Amino acid sequence: MSENLKAYMGFSRGAGSPEGACLVFAHNAKEARRLAHFIVSNWFGESWIDTAVLWQKNSPHLFEEADQDKLKRGEPHAIECPKTCSECDLWGSPMGKSGKCIDCEDEEEMFKEEAPCLRT
Ligand SMILES: [Zn+2]
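# zinc ion complex -> structure
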């Protein structure tokens, strides 16, 4: 039995993850980096040393974005465009029902609590 895949965020160190990050499913960071590099170097034309990966610990929701067949087979793969939040355009946090991530939803929630008089 093969080891379970882990979720990694692949991005360019130079450009920074908000500029573009891909989602990679791999067994380890080395494998993830190789997969991420194909995509990241395509976006930014950066060199190998510029490609970084970060293990997305405690993010089971990211596995919903995975290719489920490949996930089952334990086949490493990359998702170039994971679903992003409609508000901040980032991914990484779980998405709420509204199409926004829970961080943005939280902010809205706070805003409502602090300023109820603004609601008409
Ligand atoms: Zn957001």
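# post-check
The beta strands are 6-12, 21-26, 51-55, 77-79.
The longest helix spans residues 29-44.
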